[in-house]
Amino acid sequence: MRQHRTRTAVALAAIGGLATALTACSAPPAESGDAAATTDFLACMVSDFGGFDDRGFNQAVLAALDTAEEKYGVETLRLESTTENDYAPNLAQSVDQGCDFTVTVGFSLAEATKAAAEQNPDSRFAIIDDSSIELPNVKPVVFDTAQASFLAGYLAAGYSKTGTVAVFGGQPFPPVLLFMDGFSDGVDRYNADAGTDVKLLGWNKAAQDGTFAGTFTDIAAGKTLTQTFIDQGADVIMPVAGSLYLGSGEAAHEAPGDVVLVGVDNDVVELSPDLADVMLTSVMKQMADAVVELIGQAVEDEFDNSPYIGELANDGVAIAPFHEYEDSVSPELAAAVDAIREQIISGEIVVESVNAP
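-> structure tokens emitted (357 positions)
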């Protein structure tokens, strides 16, 4: 394998106010062959303003670039944004540097990505969590997280000792609401199956109305909302709000009773092992796997603009292992969750959401 270089560029700016959700169905990316002999291929990413250390989307794509370097022998360029004003300059830099394939991380980059793609039709792009761009050189990469969130809602309702669970969002963007819709449906399904009346706080799917922090970066806001739900009796809480789960973890640790969380985007136990004692599971978007294979396709000149949609059936979404709660989830509940998963994959259960990709 040829030697490769990793290049990192950081856009320096003060963090701005507006935050973003970290956000025809094609088959999952096919396994690409060994591209170790590839030369002069530059795979790039532009982060959203959450930055490289967001414990979410950006970190997942960074890990994908690391894997692609080893698997395909490519060079990589990582462009960090700290405000939305950095998006256009960073995309311009990716083009100027000769990036063969650029991944933009998060739907807040949609406008800038579209503009860059229109201006540079020979450059290839993929955008995470957005399907609004219809251009031959842009591949949408989206995830039907409602399917995996359905499993998490079912699990949460079955695990709850108080009969009350909760969910809240950062801001009401469709990728956030998609998590919340699926979680709500899962709670409803458990109640129907078990003849129970587990209450959900924080989201009304029919009205598309619920509780939002108004931010994805203010960890204190996450703690405050979580404490409010705990005070209302919730003992399983899912924050769909970027790094605010760290504040939720603080609240869970300080709670007088047993309170557990459901993470989103990644397996939170792997990102934040100090929260393993309060993390029941996580609803995962398998972003790193998808990005690695898409880079491989681009290396082999097999790029196309058909959307990649991560689902349970193609392992694009999933729930994480129960980790420290493996022995706390009853075998009956675990088996029921597994059965629900298979029913969703087979189409026996159809998870629907107005926010679906």
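The longest helix spans residues 174-194.
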